[in-house]
Amino acid sequence: MTGRKLILSLFLSAALAACSDSGQKPAGSGAAGGAPQRPPQPVSVVTMKKSEQPITAVLPGRAAPFQIADIRPRVTGEIKQIAFKQGNEVKAGDLLYKIEDSTYAAEVAQAKATVSKAEASIPSAQANLSRYERLVNSGATQIEYESARVTLLQAQADVAQANAALNAAQINLDLTEIRAPFDGVTSISNVSIGNIVTANQTTALTTLRRLDPIYIDLIDSSTNLLELRSAMASGRLSGDPRKADIRLTLEDGTDYPLTGKLDMADMAVSETTGTYQIRALFDNPRDMILPGTYVRATVTLGNETGYLIPQRAATRNARGELSAKFVTADGKVETRIFPTSGVSGNNWLVTQGVTDSDRLVVDGFQWIADGATVQPVEATVDDKGFVVEATKPAAAKP
After folding, report:
1. CA–CA separation, 381 vs 219, rounded Å?
2. Mean of the per-residue pLDDT values for the chain?
3. What pLDDT, on a 0 to 100 scale, did the predictor assign at position 23?
4. Where do the Multidrug resistance protein MdtA-like beta-barrel domain residues begin and end (predicted)?
5. pLDDT tens across 47-92, in order?
6. Same-domain check for residues 339 and 221
């Protein structure tokens, strides 16, 4: 029993000694006994400068042919010849199809014979009328004279009628040759040699499309239309949108090398989608753009003076307002809200809430809270949206 008491006494003595040693241990070198302070986090910033910039809109679009025609026969007959190579270009007036014309040629010959027969009665009717003109006062009655005059008029009418029939027969004969109404590219032929076609049938023989120039049909919202008109009315936007330059980005992401112009805009907004259509015209000399191709069009609406905020440096809040982070004069981060903004290329353009020399955070702002102390590092943003830090000057050699 005594041994157990001795062991317990020794254990308590050791514990008290340990506690005494812990209380006498000197404090560490950290500030106020805590962890050492972290240095300010470096962030890339762009110095803001007011300037006049183009206001642009990126709109979805689809190509449509400048001219399009479904080629149909206007007379009935058998296809005797297909004179074009399917899918190739043809010129206005080029022969596309030839319809069997023997029946129509016979009708022309018959009509010519009818004209000749009608013309043959004119001289005798004219001579008969002249004789009664001389005799009307010396024995011939007025009735006989009027009858001779009517006979001549009837003969002349018969000639006119015969000529009209001849013209109709000649037209039908000419229509057996189906020719291109304008320069364009043909589609696949829907008929073959030997097929019977009928006048004005519903099925087209082929479709002809003119691709140079070519239309681009663009879609924009009525909201953007109202904002554009408001900007023009207030004088903020300079330039005439009707003379805007339009550039295209093709489906594979490449830029189309030629610039287009506005051709027309619908004067009505769709009741179902709330959008309206804009039609642009582009030269297409190499047929690079084909009908039905989807594109993105960048439309330069005019110029406005303001500050550029790269799209990578901004976000939208729950109300859809543009927001961006800036570094204050004392090196702290703050968020600014811009209720109104425009688009200028790959940037937002704002006119309020920024002054010259303000420093915009362009990289890493997603993980920086307002009020945090940071170390600004001057940078630029290239055309593709990448941040490029400014080159520091080389240190002088001793």
Report:
1. 30
2. 82
3. 45
4. 213-302
5. 999 988 888 888 899 999 999 999 999 999 999 999 999 999 999 9
6. yes
Residue 168, domain CATH: 1.10.287
DSSP-assigned letters across all residues of 149-198: HHHHHHHHHHHHHHHHHHHHHHHHHHTTEEE-SSSEEE---S--TT-EE-
Residues 194 and 145 in one domain: no
d(CA 293, CA 63): 5
The answer to whether position 87 is within a domain reads yes
pTM of the model: 0.67
* Owning domain of residue 87: 73-99+177-203
SS3 content of the chain, % helix, strand, coil (to 5): 30, 35, 35
Is residue 92 classed as helix, strand or coil in its secondary structure?
Answer: coil
Give the position of tokens 């109709």.
Answer: 168
- CA distances, 380 to each of 247, 336, 383 (Å): 25, 20, 10
In a domain, 34, yes or no: no
Provide the pLDDT for residue 391.
54
- Domain shared by 346 and 309, yes or no: yes
User: Is 153 in the same domain as 194?
Assistant: no
Report helix, strand or coil for 10. helix
Which tokens is 336 given?
């600014």
Taking the C-alpha atoms of residue 236 and residue 227, their distance in angstroms, rounded to an integer, is 11
Q: What mean pLDDT do residues 116-121 have? A: 88
164 in the same domain as 110: yes
**Residues 6+ away with beta carbon under 8 Å from 93:** 179, 180
Strand partners, 380: 388
Report the distance separating Cα 210 and Cα 180, nearest Å. Answer: 11
Same domain? For 193 and 332 the reply is no
Three-state SS across 348-383? EEECCCCCCCCEEEEECHHHCCCCCEEEEEEEEECC
